[in-house]
Each structure stands twice: as structure tokens, then as C-alpha cells.
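User: Run a structure prediction on this.
Assistant: Running it now.
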Amino acid sequence: IEFNCGENGGLSSVWISQPDLSDLVGNYPIISAEEARALLLKGNYITSVPYEVPGGEYIRRVELVYRNGDYEKYYMPYYRFYVELPEEQREHGLKDYGAYYVPAVEGSYLTDMPTWDGSFN
């Protein structure tokens, strides 16, 4: 919790950066990594990477994670895909990768894709 004082020394704001999101909202079925990959390739993802996914052949790794950024309303599972970025190819064969997130919850239970706050976790 962060407390901020105004110019007159009084309390001006309180910031809770890691709220407890552990209250159970419900149990929801998740999709497979293969289904998430298909959604990724269709453009159904969130990311801070400035490039679209260049193709399935550039996907290097996938893992199931829970995003926990400051603006998350609920803990929700996502598949995080690490994708090689050909636009960022470096000298001597060095490569850059971007993280692309696909919700792991079955789509019929989602009402809106979450917004991206720019953080990476």
C-alpha cells in the first residue's frame, strides 16, 4: 500500500498495488494449448509487442500463467506464448522474443477481453 501526501501535508491518495484477488468467483473450464494457439494465430491475444504474430513457425514456447498486474480485476489463467520477432533480428544470430497472452478460460465465459496495462509478468 502506498500513501501520498498533498502539498499541505494531508493525505491525498492511497494506492493498493497488489490487492488480494483470491476470492473464488467460480470454476471455469479452460481450453487446451492447441486451441489457444489457434486463437493466437487468428489475432485473439493481448500484448505490449508492437508487431502482429508473424506466423506459427515463430512460436517458440507456451506456458499457462496467471497475470497479476495492478489493473487485473480477477486472477485468470492465460496461455503466454513466446514468439520470435523477425523484425528484431540482431547481428550474430541473436533473436528477440515477444510475449503474447491468450485467455485460457473457454470463450463462452468471457464477456470482454481485458485491457493491457503495459506491464510484463
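DSSP finds one helix and five strands in the chain.
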